[in-house]
Amino acid sequence: MNKLLIVGTVAFDAIETPFGKTDKILGGAGTYIGLSAAFFNLQSAIVSVVGDDFPQEYLDLLTERNIDISGLEVVKGGKTFFWSGRYHNDLNSRDTLDTQLNVLADFQPKVPENYKNADVVMLGNLHPLVQSGVLDQLESTPKLVVLDTMNFWMDCALPELLDVIKRVDVITINDEEARQLSGEYSLVKAAAKIQEMGPEFVVIKKGEHGALLFHENNVFFAPALPLEEVFDPTGAGDTFAGGFAGFITQSENVSFENMKNAIIYGSNLASFCVEKFGTERMVSLEKEEVMVRLKQFKSLTQFDIEL
Amino acid sequence: MNKLLIVGTVAFDAIETPFGKTDKILGGAGTYIGLSAAFFNLQSAIVSVVGDDFPQEYLDLLTERNIDISGLEVVKGGKTFFWSGRYHNDLNSRDTLDTQLNVLADFQPKVPENYKNADVVMLGNLHPLVQSGVLDQLESTPKLVVLDTMNFWMDCALPELLDVIKRVDVITINDEEARQLSGEYSLVKAAAKIQEMGPEFVVIKKGEHGALLFHENNVFFAPALPLEEVFDPTGAGDTFAGGFAGFITQSENVSFENMKNAIIYGSNLASFCVEKFGTERMVSLEKEEVMVRLKQFKSLTQFDIEL
């Protein structure tokens, strides 16, 4: 089985949406990526850090899905990263109510020995120096390195971000971040500029409006599945990235054609994530449900005009 | 050849975008619908009204495309409908600077005798009573009646709008209008409610984010083609509707499966419309360019996951 190395936060989230609010629940980019990638036939490990306030049941939840957590450092006396946010009525925007970095502030990632030859590396949204630090520890060149980031690092750590972007094959960012990073409003132009920064493949996430994959002069688009109700968008982008990286890891094929399929799998898994609060839906999700929804994605997008 | 009857404004537009501004140029929903539908193998006629300030060259432009203008009334001493608008920098929103109804204020549509048995009727955005007035003049039931409308009529003539909506097979509106008409934020729920109002098929246009087609429990999505530059969005929705109605007229097939193709053709033609000011690009467009872009739509959306 191929190996997927995941770097990303494992955290507590407290979420408010128009439909309700949660106490501190399991969250973090690494968590969502791991749970999503677990739907594929692969070995995975999460490199991250938590405090000793992090409940054993959450750790069990990860290991039950065959996610190696030997690279998940537990800091004695430390407190786990905490994020709290409130979504607006349209669920397309949110206010951050609280961010407590806690143990994340001094995080030094340590890649487990048997993942230093990972086939695919998924660098979840974290400080670019942490992302670089993981790449520095690898002993062989992965088939694919995927990086997710956000506007916060463009504002606060742009040189470091540009350094790590040079070293990856795929970048996943949202439309506003693509515009900020490139200085171009047109996403076609933005993707071209970002490709010049290093990544051969640029994935632009547009939330409920789907995702675009750019490579050289090619472009592919996957819609988000139209849902009766979006309950909580938290983690959708990470779930998308986890599905993308998981499918690539399983299939061992980094062609543009195969990445189209990976984008569809990512959109598919993300469409479940938003159906309940936090990780709840991903935890209850069955592989068969994913396959049924894949048929919906086909009928949603496939047409048969003869050319 | 099948007959497409088009009702919609034929007008002067003055447009400002971040890229420039125009004087009074040819515009109007009927014009865009007619120019777009002309790419298909069909007969078409426009029912509309202009003043005698409307230049012969614009009339010629329509008749050169085999559009029957015997139902286009020219009011002696009257002035043509005029609209002027300014787009914001993102081109997703605009301010109306001026609207002069002129001859449109007293418009009584007159369907040409030989179009009273039209195969397809495309009711462009106009007062719902004008739209009903056209349906009242038909002598046989068309295979398909498509209606386009806008929020203005929901605000000012809702009972009349609901009356005409009951009588159509397909409604095309944008996402905000679908929400306003249904009172539902979720587009899936909005489409279900609108189907209950009459139309079996609901097309929701999302501009640069593509278009959704709903029918019973089925949904199809066509993306907008990602473009380097959107120059002027004026008329894109009408061009989309014209492509949709034109393809259905040509193909004589009103199944959901065939409507998927019609939606793709509509998106295809709309993607050209926005490349230049007003009707300029549609006037210069060659059928071969449409076919080349159809290939781009295929590679943009088609994937080959085996199920």
TrEMBL record, chains A, B:
The keyword Metal-binding does not apply. Keywords: Kinase, Transferase. The keyword Isomerase does not apply. InterPro entries: Carboh/pur_kinase_PfkB_CS, PfkB_dom, Ribokinase-like. GO terms for cellular component: cytosol. Residues 21-281 form the Carbohydrate kinase PfkB domain. It comes from the Bacteria. GO terms for molecular function: kinase activity. Gene3D superfamilies: 3.40.1190.20. This is Sugar kinase. It comes from Flavobacterium flevense.
